[in-house]
Design brief:
The chain is of the alpha+beta class. The protein has three domains: 175 residues, Formiminotransferase, N-terminal subdomain (Formiminotransferase-cyclodeaminase, Chain B, domain 1), CATH 3.30.990; 164 residues, 2-Layer Sandwich (Alpha-Beta Plaits), CATH 3.30.70; 205 residues, Up-down Bundle (Four Helix Bundle (Hemerythrin (Met), subunit A)), CATH 1.20.120.680. It has 17 helices and 13 strands. Strands 1, 2, 3, 4, 5, 6 and 7 form a seven-stranded mixed sheet that branches. Strand 11 and strand 12 form a beta hairpin. Helix 8 crosses helix 9 and helix 15 runs parallel beside helix 17. The longest helix has 42 residues. It is globular and about 80 Å long. The two termini are 56 Å apart. The mean pLDDT is 94.
Length: 562
Amino acid sequence: MQPLIECVPNFSEGRDMGVIRQITDQIEAVEGVRLLDVDPGKATNRTVVTFVGPPEPVCEAAFRAARRAAELIDMRRHKGEHPRFGATDVCPLIPISGITMDEVVEHARRLGRRIGEELEIPVYLYEYAASRAERKNLASCRAGEYEGLAEKLTRPEWKPDFGPATFNARSGATAVGARDFLVAYNVNLNTTSTRRANAIAYDIREKGRIKTVDGTPGGRPMVDEKGEKVWEPGSLKCVKAIGWYIEEYGIAQISINLTNLNVTPIHVAFDECCRKAQERGIRVTGSEIVGLVPLSAMLEAGRYFLRKQQRSVGVSDRELIKIAVKSLGLNDLSPFKPEEKIIEYAIADKGAKRLVDRTVEDMLELTASEAPAPGGGSISALVGAFGAALATMVANLSSHKRGWDDRWEEFSNWAERGKHYWTRLMRRVDEDTEAFNAIMTAFGLPHGSAEEKAARKAAIQSATGRAIEVPLAVMEESLAGMEVVKAMAEIGMEASVSDAGVAALCARTAVMGAHLNVRINAASLEDKAAKEAFLKRAAEVEERATTLEREILAIVGGRIRP
C-alpha cells in the first residue's frame, strides 16, 4: 500500500480569497498532491486547508504554502475569533494509510526544521512530534497567542524547536506536529452569547473549568496545597472546546476539536452539547464540520441515531450518511456535500468508472457487447449481491413490522450481516473484471529474451492465481450470506418469505457460476498443489450451497399459503 498522509495547515487569513488562492496554488503545483478542501472563515479570519498524498510531496507542498503565507500575511494586522500566533498557524501531518505514526513524526520534524531554518520562523513541535511533554498540547504552544509571542520567546523554556528565538513580527510562529485524525466540529446555538457558549464548552471539554470557592462562575479560584488552581473536568474525554460568536451567521457556537473519535465520536459530542445547552435554557440548532471527516465517523453517527429510534441499522451507507446529516443538523449553515466532506469520497478517483456505478441498462448492454468482460464472474458476483440484498430487505422490513417492536434489534443485527455480504460481493463485480484484464496484460508482456519470457510467465501465473481467488471469494461470501437468507426464510415477516426464496436462488446461482470461473482459470495454473486446494475448496462450497438452497426453499414452500 502506498504511504499516504494528510496535511491540514491553518492559515491566518479567511477573508481575502485572492491571498488564500495564491497559497493553495502552491499546494496544487506539487505533483502527487491532491487538494481536498479549502474552508475559509470570515469571523475567525482563518482558512483550514486539507490535502493528501505521499509523504515527500505533501511536505514539499506544506513548505511552499508556508513560504507563500509568510510573504502574503502580515500578523501585525490580523484580527479574528480563533486563537493564533502565526501566518501559518499550525501544520499537522496525519497518517492515512501505509505509514506509521513514528514515520510521520520524522517527516514532521524535517518539515519543521526546514520552515524554521529556511524561512526564519520560530517553530514549535507538538502532539506526537513534540520534543518535550509540556509542548505536546497545541494550546500550550500557542498560549499567549501572537500578542504574547515576543515575551514568550525570551523565556528559555519556550525556545523554539527550530528557527530563531527572536520575534518575527510579520509571520509570528508556526506549530508543526504529527497527530491522529482530528475533527474540527462546531455546534450551533440559538443564542448570540459567547459567555453562555463558553459555559457549555467548559461543561463538555476534558479540561473543564477552574473550580471556585463558592461554586459560582467568576468567583475566587480554588487552589490546592501547592497554591495551584484546581480544575473540574468536563464530561467528555479527548475533547477541546471554546465558545465564540460568529458574526457572519449571527449566532454563537461551541467550537470543538475531537482528538480521538474512538473515545468521543461526533454524535456523542453533539448529544452532550444538546443536553448541556438545554440545562442552560439554550437550544442546539445544528452543527458543522470544518475540513473533512472519516467515512466511519459518519456511518457510526447514522447507526447511533437509528438505534435511538429503534430502527434497523442494516441500511446502505448512503442512507446512514443521510440520517447522520439530518440528525446532526449539518445542513444548518451550508449544504453538507458527502463527496467533498468525507475523506474517502474526496480522495476517490473521480475519473474511474466502476461497473457497479453504471445503470442497470448500461450494465446489460456492456455485458451483451463484443467485449469479453464483464463476463460470467462479474455477473455471478452481482447476482450474489442481489441475493444478500434481498435477505437484508426482508430483515429491514421485519424490523419495523407492526407488533414486532420488541424484535427490532434482532432483525437489525441480521440486516447488518446481510449488508456486510452484499457490499463485499458488489466489490467483487469489478475485481473479477480487473483480474481478467490483468491476465490479458500479462499475456501482452514482451517475451523475446529468456529473462522476458520468465517474467511474462511469472506474471501470467500470478494473475491466474488472482483470477481464481476472486470467484472463490464470491462463492464463499455468497454461501455465508445464505445463513442470513435462511434466517429470514424462517423468522422474517411472512409477506416477504418469497423474497427469501428468490435470495436463495440468487445465492446458489452465484456460487455455481463463480465455481465455473474457478475451474476454467485453474486449468491454466501450473502449481498442482495450489490448483487441487482451490478446486477442493470450491467443490465443498458448492455442495454446501446446494444443500442450503434445498433447505431454504423447503422452509419457504411451507410458509407460502396458496
